[in-house]
Each structure stands twice: as C-alpha cells, then as structure tokens.
C-alpha cells in the first residue's frame, strides 16, 4: 500500500494531469455495439428478485461484468446482508460502490456516499437495532414505494429524521459510478463520504489514506482484511459543483488537514438548500491515480442521462444474445432477470490502462485484449454458469480462463479457489478452476495456452498439501476424524481429478491422466453398499458409528458434508453415473433410491442449516450440490422423471418477487440453472461437453453464438395445452430424428435447430434404452 507521502504526491500529480484529459464520452467508447434485437429486453429485468429471503442480491446500478456495483446499503453485518441490502429494511446507511451478488459470505461495500439534510452525523448505525430505530445515526428512512431499479439504474427517495425527501439516482460504467442527488429546498444539504464503511466491523479496515485534492476532488486508498485478506482498494471522487464548505474527520473528530491517514476517515461536503449535485467516482485495485484515470476515461463529464443510456445499451446488447419467444410476460421476466444476475459476476478487476493487482499483491500489465477478473465463485458456478458461457458468452470465455491461469501462476495462495480482488478466500472445497479450464479445453475454446493451464492445475492436483489432499491421494479417501467436511471434500476432489485428466491428456501427460481417472473413482471407497449411502469413514478404515443420512455431521464441532447431508451427497457423482449405478445394483435400484430422495421427509436432524432450502423431500434446490440431481434419471432409463421434476422446479421455485429464489443466488449459479433448464439443456458433467435434455419452458429460444451462427430451440405442443405438455415425445436435431435425450456441445456450438415435441403424458420409451444413456467414465 502507498505510504502517505507517496500517496499524496501521486494524487496531486494525477489530479493535475487529469484536469486536461479530453477523453471521449463513456457511451461512445463502450466496446459493446447496438443491440441485435429490436425488442426492449431490459424492461424484463427485475433487479429486486433475490433481494429478500436468502437471495443476497443487490438492487443497485452495474453494467455486465462491471467492477462497480453502485447500490444502497441497509445492513453490513448479518448473513442475510452479505450484499449490503435486504428488502425487509426501511432504513439505509448510504450508497457504496462495490458489492457481492448472491454470496453466502460478505465483504466489500467500499466508498459510501451519504446524502443528508441538517447537521452532519458521523455515527453510521451499524448495529442491527439501528435498522429499525436510526435516531442518532446517519441512516435515512425510505419506502419501497419510492424505490425504482432497472438494469444500470437505481433511484430512491430518502428522508433524514424530520427532514424532507432527498432523491438519489445511481448509474455506472465498468469502473465508475455516477450519483445524482436532488436535495429539498429550505434545508442545508451535505454529502458525507465515509471511507471507514465496510462489510463487517470497523476493525476490518487496517489502514487508510484520504486527500481532499481540491474542493471538488477527493482521492484515497485503504487496506481491508475481511473475507479477502489484505485487500487494497483506491478511489477518486469528483463533484459537479463546488461545495460551500468541506469538513474532514479523523476518528470522528474534525481535522484541519486536507490530507489524512488512519482507519476511520470521513469527509462532509456542504451544499446550498435545493441543490442538485452529481458525484462521480472511479475505483481501482492499483492506485488512486489509476482510479482517477478510470474516472477520466469512462466519465469525462457529468452527463447522467448519457451514462445511464450507455449502461442500458450495454445490458440490451448482452441480454439480446438470448431471445425468448413466449406469451408469458411473467416467465420472460424471470428468465431475463436470471440472465442479468448471470452477468453480475465474475467482475472486472483491471484499470483502463491495463494494470491490475494480482494475487501476489504485485502490479501487472495486461496484454492487449486481455482482462483481469474477480469474484469467481467456482464451487457454485462451474456447474451451470460457466457451461452456459461456452454457448452464449463464448467470446468472453478465453479471457475468463486466461485470467484463472494467470492467477495460478502469480498467486501466493496457490491454485485459485474463490479469488476476490487481490485476495484468496479459500472458500468451499475442491479446486474448480480446474473444472472451468478443462471444460473449455474439451470444447476447444481458442486463445488459451493449455500447457500453461495444466502446469498450474497439476501442482494443486499432484503435489499441494491442501485440505486433505495428501490423505485423499494416499488412502483413497479423507478420514472423518482428521478434519471437517471429509465427504464434502472427497466428492469435489474426484470431479477435479476427472477435470485434470482431460487437460493432462490434451497436453501430452497420459500417465498423469491415467492416475487422475483412477482417483476420480475414489467415491467407491466411501460408498456403503449396506446403507446405499456415501458416508464418512474413519482413519482406521471403519465406518463412522451412529450414521444418520439426514445429519450434516457425526463428530462434534464439524460437519462431514458441505452444506448437505448424505442424501444429497450420495447423488453428487457427476462424471461416472453409469459406474456409480453398479454400486446400487443397477439402474432400477438406483432409480428407486433417487425416487426416495424426492419423497423422504425434508430437513436435517442435527442442526439448522440456512443454506439448505427449497426442499422437495431431501432434494435441496436452494444449494448447489443438488442442482444436477433431477437429470440423473437420464442414466437410469427414466428420463421422463427428469422432465417432470425440472418443470416442477422451474414453475414453483423461481418467482418474480424479491423473495423469488430458494437460496443464495451465488454469483449467477442459481439463475443459470433456471436459464439452462428453461432452454431444455443442462450440463450434468460439464467436462464431458454434453448436455442432458429436458422439456423447454418456452416456445422458442434463439441463442446468438457469434459469427452469425444461431442455436434455435423450439418446443411444439402435440396436445395443444402448453401448461400440461411437459413430457418430451420426440426430438429433432437439424431436421433429423434424435433418439437420445442428450447432445454433445459440438452438435450445437456451430449453429443448430433443436426441436422438441411435447405432450401431457410421458413417452417412457424415449431415451430409456441403455444404449441411449449419456456418456460416463465407465463405458
């Protein structure tokens, strides 16, 4: 981090240089062209879906994959406020520039702006009780009736205690935010910039600097140690009009210095009653001067409507990559809101000059055309989000994968697990950057150096002493008495082995590939044929006693499973379903056990797990370990049950409502399940480059694949009742009968026409033959 003297020198020099910058407007320089669809798709986005319940979504302004998420903060401490916002609240603290989308852990909320009337109040009101009774804090009251959100824009009316309403409007570019505050007449106005505000407690801020460069420009930087360790973030904020007074506060005490450091830094900018003030801010992980450079490049002026319109055009363009034709406006709203959430992460983490701070905490320069990203929720998103990108965001996939490769090469933490800005959170078991890389390798995504990719993943796979991997390699399982989540780790590691084996083969390491494929069958070592469950085993080789398939753990103080119990984990195996079915005694016993999963009494027996929601029996749609399970019937010879269950989930577990998601949205994964399933495709085993088919929800879906190619998916009703016609009667691919209920990626990726004929009763013969089974490790 910059020391104070160096920071101030850089800030002053950057400010002087930036004043004469003559960049083109952000709207004109955007790399996104005009939308290819004439229909306004942005109108279908409801940014408030998932902002209630356990969805953990934010409603504020962002652009596709943008670094800035400019959004209101109503809470900063409890689990359901991981995004800084919850729909239950009627007071808010202010508006910050960085947020996580749908995660189960909180961080960020950098650079809070607080518009208020009356006297300056420095107490933030972080205590949960202050959300209801904000007296004595800088919180403001608001009503959801006065709140409006759309893709790229947010507005709300707030009221300080006893004051009239202030109108706040927010919009964003990729690396900057722009606010327009309209203050009431008759009351003195001010905007408080709180550089101490952060998710968690005040102690998370380890050091900070701030400089009021001029009456209209303030710059700063800080180091935060929360979920992402030792995260550095910098900003440059500029006001459209000169304030009547500027006050600097250190530890909530007035300071005569215009440049300060410490941990608790705030600045109040005072304006005349009735003022309309625009405030634009750039952020950077590299330096305050880079933050100012981002600001000057993406927002050279203060044209709110132009920036808002540019953000809307960006969203329209990206949403238009998938066009849905269907009479149900409600379902189109859910679909395009899901597509919107799928572009809230990963997020850009580089500057306009191509610099970024790596996971080695050093500054790097990107090659032309490359980007650095953050917020890879890989344990979640390898399942459906990234597979979907290989169809409708194919041009972005090389940049996403190359970023993961660089992270693996640069990181002081090892192979990326859940990277957030310049830190590694180590969140969740497995190392699914390998899964994302391997899928792209098998699908022959161009522009990626696979030898570099394999070098990074091999070290984690073969050598690293990481979260039980030595026992996994040596013993073939992870003893439950050696640490927590032994089964949760193992089921992820077998899939990561499967993934690595494909890249090993592709890069000339067949011996590695053979070892990895063999280890990917380690699931057999923890399958108990007597109970027909995957269950924890002790270091002695004995099964853990007093086994309960509904319990998350059997040893005090830790779980055996990861956000799951034995019911969900037993059906986790994605890559070798055919081989796995043999352990049950064949297809019929496997299908019978699968049936029981959906009818067993829901819940867990030893604790309340907030993540395990959206139950159908012991199936838990609110969390990722269950997401592929409905599709396993395709291997069991009963794919009509997949069609039945998938349609049930599509219609009853996704709603056009603030509480419209079963659980955490998880950086696009919960939404990606809906989007892929509604189109009739799901990648149970992404690395195999195949999709299992189910009945599409919409009449027609067209995906723009690039270079003028399109994938058209049609659903025709044979009985004339679309609501009841949920079973596939037949499938045609490019005009030819398709007698199996799965397709290869290559069948679709160069353009295709996939036609489903649906009916109200199941065709139990279609896809039932063992020869029609989707691929599996075991042939």
Map the helices and strands.
Blueprint (H helix, E strand, L loop, with lengths): L3 H15 L7 H4 L41 E3 L17 E2 L1 E3 L15 E6 L22 E11 L2 E7 L5 E8 L3 E7 L6 E6 L10 E10 L2 E8 L6 E9 L5 E6 L2 E3 L3 E4 L2 E7 L4 E9 L3 H11 L5 H16 L2 E4 L3 H13 L5 E2 L6 E3 L5 E3 L7 E2 L3 H4 L3 H8 L4 H14 L8 E2 L2 E2 L8 H10 L7 H14 L5 H7 L10 H21 L3 H10 L7 E2 L4 E2 L31 H5 L6 H8 L2 H13 L15 E2 L2 E2 L18 H14 L16 H10 L2 E2 L7 E4 L6 E7 L2 E9 L9 E7 L2 E2 L4 E3 H5 L2 E8 L20
Parallel strand pairs: 32-36
Antiparallel strand pairs: 1-3, 2-5, 4-9, 5-6, 6-7, 7-8, 8-17, 9-16, 10-11, 10-15, 11-12, 12-17, 13-14, 13-16, 18-31, 19-22, 20-21, 23-24, 25-26, 27-28, 29-30, 30-35, 31-32, 33-34, 33-36
Helix pairs in contact: 1-3, 5-18, 8-9, 8-10, 9-12, 10-12, 12-13
Regions with little confidence, pLDDT below 50 for 5+ residues: 1-36
What is the number of E strands? 36
Rg measurement, Å: 26 Å
Q: Kindly report the name of the CATH homologous superfamily of the largest domain.
A: alpha-1,2-mannosidases domains
**How many domains make up the coordinates?**
2
Mean pLDDT: 94
Q: Which architecture of the largest domain per CATH? A: Up-down Bundle
- Strand line-up of the largest beta sheet: 2-5-6-7-8-17-12-11-10-15
For the record, the CATH class of the largest domain is Mainly Alpha
Please identify the structural class as seen in this structure. Answer: alpha+beta
User: Which descriptor suits the 3D outline?
Assistant: globular
**Strand percentage, roughly?**
15-25%
Number of helices: 19
The helix content, as a percent range, equals 25-40%
């Amino acid at each position: 981090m910059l020391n104070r003297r160096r920071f101030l020198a850089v800030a002053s020099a950057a400010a002087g240089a930036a004043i004469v910058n003559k960049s083109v407007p952000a709207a004109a320089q955007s790399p996104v062209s005009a939308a290819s669809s004439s229909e306004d798709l942005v109108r279908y986005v409801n940014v408030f879906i998932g902002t209630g319940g356990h969805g953990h979504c934010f409603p504020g302004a962002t652009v596709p994959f943008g670094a800035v998420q400019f959004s209101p903060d109503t809470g900063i401490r409890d689990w359901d406020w991981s995004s800084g916002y919850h729909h239950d609240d009627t007071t808010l603290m202010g508006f910050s520039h960085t947020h996580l989308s749908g995660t189960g852990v909180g961080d960020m909320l950098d650079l809070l702006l607080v518009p208020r009337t009356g006297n300056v109040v420095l107490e933030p009101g972080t205590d949960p009780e202050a959300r209801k009774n904000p007296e004595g804090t800088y919180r403001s009251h608001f009503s959801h009736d006065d709140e409006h959100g759309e893709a790229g824009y947010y507005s709300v009316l707030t009221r300080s205690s006893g004051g009239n309403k202030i109108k706040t409007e927010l919009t964003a570019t990729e690396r900057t935010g722009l606010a327009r505050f309209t203050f009431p007449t008759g009351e003195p106005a001010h905007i408080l910039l709180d550089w101490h505000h952060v998710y968690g407690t005040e102690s998370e801020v380890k050091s900070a600097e701030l400089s009021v460069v001029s009456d209209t420009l303030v710059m700063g930087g800080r180091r935060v140690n929360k979920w992402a360790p030792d995260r550095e973030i910098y900003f440059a904020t500029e006001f459209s009009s000169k304030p009547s007074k500027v006050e600097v506060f250190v530890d909530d005490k007035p300071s005569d210095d215009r440049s300060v450091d410490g941990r608790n830094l705030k600045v109040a900018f005072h304006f005349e009653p009735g003022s309309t003030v625009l405030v634009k801010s750039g952020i950077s992980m590299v330096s305050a001067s880079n933050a100012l450079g981002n600001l000057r490049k993406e927002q050279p002026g203060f044209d709110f409507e132009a920036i808002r319109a540019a953000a809307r055009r960006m969203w329209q363009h990206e949403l238009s990559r998938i066009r849905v034709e269907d009479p149900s406006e409600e379902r189109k709203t859910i679909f395009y809101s899901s597509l919107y959430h799928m572009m809230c992460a990963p997020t850009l983490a580089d500057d306009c000059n191509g610099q970024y701070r790596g996971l080695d905490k050093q500054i790097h320069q990107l090659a032309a055309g490359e980007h650095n990203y953050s917020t890879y929720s890989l344990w979640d998103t390898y399942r459906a989000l990234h597979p979907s990108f290989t169809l409708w965001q194919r041009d972005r996939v090389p940049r996403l994968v190359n970023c993961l490769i660089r992270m693996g090469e640069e990181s002081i933490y090892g192979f990326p697990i859940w990277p957030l800005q310049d830190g590694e959170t180590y969140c969740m078991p497995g190392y699914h950057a390998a899964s994302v890389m391997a899928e792209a390798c098998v699908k022959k995504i161009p522009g990626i150096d696979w030898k570099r990719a394999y070098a990074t993943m091999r070290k984690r796979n073969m050598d690293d002493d990481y979260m039980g991997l030595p026992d996994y390699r040596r013993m073939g399982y992870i003893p439950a008495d050696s640490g927590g989540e032994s089964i949760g780790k193992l089921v992820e590691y077998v899939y990561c082995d499967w993934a690595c084996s494909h890249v090993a083969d592709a890069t000339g390491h067949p011996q590695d590939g053979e070892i990895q494929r063999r280890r990917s069958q380690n699931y057999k070592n923890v399958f108990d044929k007597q109970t027909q469950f995957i269950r924890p085993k002790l270091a002695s080789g004995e099964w853990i006693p007093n086994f309960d398939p509904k319990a998350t753990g059997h040893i005090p103080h830790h779980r055996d499973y990861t956000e799951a119990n034995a019911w969900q984990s037993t059906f986790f195996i994605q890559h070798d379903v055919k081989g796995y079915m043999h352990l049950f005694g064949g297809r019929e016993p496997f299908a019978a056990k699968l049936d029981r999963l959906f009818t067993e009494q829901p819940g867990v027996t030893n604790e309340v797990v907030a993540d395990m929601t959206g139950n159908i029996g012991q199936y838990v749609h609110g969390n990722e370990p269950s997401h592929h399970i409905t599709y396993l019937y395709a291997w069991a010879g009963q794919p009509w049950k997949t069609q039945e269950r998938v349609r049930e989930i599509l219609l009853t577990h996704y709603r056009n409502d603030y509480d419209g998601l079963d659980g955490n949205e998880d950086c696009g994964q919960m939404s990606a399940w809906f989007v892929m399933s509604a189109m009739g495709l799901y990648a149970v085993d992404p690395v195999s480059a195949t999709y299992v088919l189910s009945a599409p929800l919409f009449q027609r879906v067209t995906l723009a694949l690039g270079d003028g190619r399109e994938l058209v998916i049609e659903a025709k009703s044979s009985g004339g009742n679309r609501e009841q016609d949920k079973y596939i009667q037949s499938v045609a691919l490019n005009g030819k009968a398709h007698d199996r209920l799965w397709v290869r990626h290559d069948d679709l990726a160069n353009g295709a026409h996939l036609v489903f004929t649906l009916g109200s009763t199941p065709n139990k013969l279609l896809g039932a033959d063992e020869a029609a089974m989707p691929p599996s490790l075991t042939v």
